[in-house]
């Protein structure tokens, strides 16, 4: 009897929270216009900082990101397309992509949202 009384309110709570599970940014589609990072260069150099084990040496590799840059030059979504092979390095690149201010992409005199494909290299 107690199980039935608890399970209905619990099921209602779970159902209501299920709609909150997907963040709003994930629902926004990626812009159809795809450009290279050279077309929406960051306004300032990106600061990349990450931890690594000095005995293993500094990690190297290339991480490719997909960045939704809006008409104001701000990142709205960042997605990793290819890993550098080092989780901490990938996370540093993603964090830098989120923080960066980009030059807005202009088409026909108007700034538009774009999808940017950007390789990040560490040597």
UniProtKB/TrEMBL annotation:
Record's keyword terms, sorted: Membrane, Signal, Transmembrane, Transmembrane helix
Endpoints of the signal sequence: 1-26
Keyword Cell membrane recorded: no
One Gene Ontology CC term in the entry: membrane
Record has Transmembrane as a keyword: yes
Domain of life: Bacteria
Gene Ontology BP terms: transmembrane transport
Subcellular location, record wording: Membrane
UniProt domain TonB C-terminal: residue ranges: 35-123
Membrane topology: Single-pass membrane protein
Pfam families: TonB_C
InterPro entries hit by this protein: TonB/TolA_C (IPR006260), TonB_C (IPR037682)
Alphabetical list of NCBIfam families matching this protein: tonB_Cterm
Protein name, UniProt field: TonB family protein
Source organism: Sphaerotilus hippei
């Amino acid at each position: 009897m107690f199980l039935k009384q608890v399970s209905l309110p619990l099921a209602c709570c779970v159902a209501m929270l299920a709609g909150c599970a997907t963040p709003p940014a994930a629902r926004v589609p990626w812009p159809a216009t795809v450009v290279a990072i050279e077309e929406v260069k960051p306004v300032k150099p990106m600061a990349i900082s990450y931890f690594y084990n000095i005995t293993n040496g500094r990690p190297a590799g290339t991480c490719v990101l997909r960045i939704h840059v809006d008409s104001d030059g701000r990142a709205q979504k960042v997605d990793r397309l290819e890993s550098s092979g080092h989780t901490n390095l990938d996370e540093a690149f993603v964090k830098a992509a989120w923080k960066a201010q980009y030059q807005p992409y202009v088409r026909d005199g108007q700034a538009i949202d774009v999808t940017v494909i950007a390789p990040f290299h560490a040597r």
